[in-house]
Amino acid sequence: MLFNKLLLSSRKLISSARNISYVPKNRLDGKVAIVTASTEGIGYGIAERLGLEGAKVVISSRKQKNVDAAIEKLKSQKIEATGLVCHVGNPQDRNKLFKETLDKFGGLNILVSNAAVNPTVGGVLDCEEQSWDKVFDINVKSAYMLAKDSLPHLRKNKGGKIVFISSIAGYQPFEALGVYSVSKTALIGLSRAAAVQLASENIQVNCVAPGIIKTKFSQVLTSNDGYGEETMSGIPMKRFGEVDDISGVVAFLVSNDANYITGEVIVPAGGMQSRL
Ligand code: NAP
After folding, report:
1. Which residues 6+ apart lie within 8 Å of 38 measured at CB?
2. Which structural domain range is residue 47 located in?
3. DSSP symbol at 226
4. Can you tell me which atom of ligand 1 is nearest the CA of 66?
5. Is residue 255 a part of any domain in this protein?
6. pLDDT (tens digit per residue) in 225-254
7. Is 44 a catalytic residue?
8. What pLDDT shows up at residue 21?
9. Would you tell me which of 4, 54, 179, 245 could form a disulfide with 127, CB atoms 3.0–4.6 Å apart?
10. ∠ Cα 114 58 169 (to 5°)
C-alpha cells in the first residue's frame, strides 16, 4: 500500500517536472510492451511513458552500455523494465527479444517498432544499391518481421496493439533524405495493409509519423549551425517537437482508449502537411 502510494507520487513528480500535462497512471496496467531502439530519443521516451502508465516495458538497442544506462533511468522511476541488445536487422537478436519478453513478463500485448537508419544523404535517385538495401532492411523489413513474429504472442492474449514509427518525411519527402523518406512511406502502407488483415482478430495496427523532433537523429535539421532556420520555416507551429509530443500519442494508441482505431496514422508535426 505504502509502496503503491510512493510509486504514484514519484510518477506524479516526474510528469510535472517534464511538463507533461496529464499522465493517466493506470491506463496500461497489466500490459507488456516491447519498444525497439529504445535506449534514447523517441524510443526511450515511448518506453518511459508506457512504463509511467503502468506497462511492463522491454527496451533494447545495439549497445549493451546504452541498454544498461536506460534501464537504470527507467528503474529509478519505479518502472518495471528489462532490456537487452537487439539490433533489429539481426534475426537472432529479434528472437532473443521475444524470448526475453516471455521469460521476464510472461506474454506480450504491445509492439512499438521504432528503429530506423539513414546511412546516406542525397536525392532519392542518387542512392547506392547497398544503402537502399540497408535502409529498407532496417526501416521496413525489420519492422515487418517484428510485427509478424509478435503475432503468435498477441493472439495468445486474444488481441494487441502494434505501432510503427514512420515520419513526416513519409508524406513530404525530404530532398536530402530521399530513400529514408520512401522507407517511411512504405511503413504507412504496411500499417494500413496489416490493420485490414488483423482487424477481425482484435489486433489494432497504427502508425505515428512525427515531425521534426529534437533528438540526436535530427540534430543537423534542428541546430543553428545546421539547417535549423530552414527547417523551422516549414513548421507552421514554429517550434521543433519534443519526445513527449510523440510518446503521449503512442500511449494513447496502445491503450484501450484507441480500441476502435486501426490502420490510421497520427501526425504530431506542428502542422506540417501530411497528405499522400
Ligand atoms: P535517436 O535519438 O538517434 O535514437 C536512436 C535509438 O535507436 C538509440 O537508442 C539507438 O541506440 C537505437 N538504434 C539505432 N539503430 C538501431 C538498430 N539497428 N537496432 C536497434 N536499435 C537501434 O533517434 P530518434 O530521433 O529517436 O528516432 C527514432 C525513430 O523516430 C526513427 O524511426 C526515426 O526515423 C523516427 N523519426 C524521428 C524524427 C526526429 O525528428 N527525430 C522525425 C520523424 C521520425 P544504439 O546506438 O545503442 O543502437
Report:
1. 44, 46, 47, 57, 59, 60, 61, 70, 112, 114
2. 25-266
3. T
4. 47
5. yes
6. 888 999 999 999 999 999 999 999 999 999
7. no
8. 62
9. 179
10. 5
Task: Look at the chain and report how many structural domains it folds into.
Answer: 1
- Assess if residue 275 is contained within a domain: no
* Structure confidence at residue 25 (pLDDT): 86
As a whole number of angstroms, the distance between CA 74 and CA 81 comes to 7
Residues of the chain with pLDDT under 70: 1-21
What is the CB < 6 Å shell around ligand 1? 36-37, 39-43, 61-63, 66, 86-89, 114-117, 138, 165, 167, 210, 212-213, 215-218
CATH of the domain at 40: 3.40.50.720
Which residues fall within 8 angstroms of residue 116, CB to CB, at 6 or more apart? 37, 138, 139, 165, 167, 180, 183, 184, 217
| pLDDT per position as a tens digit, 177-221 | 999 999 999 999 999 999 999 999 999 999 999 999 999 999 989
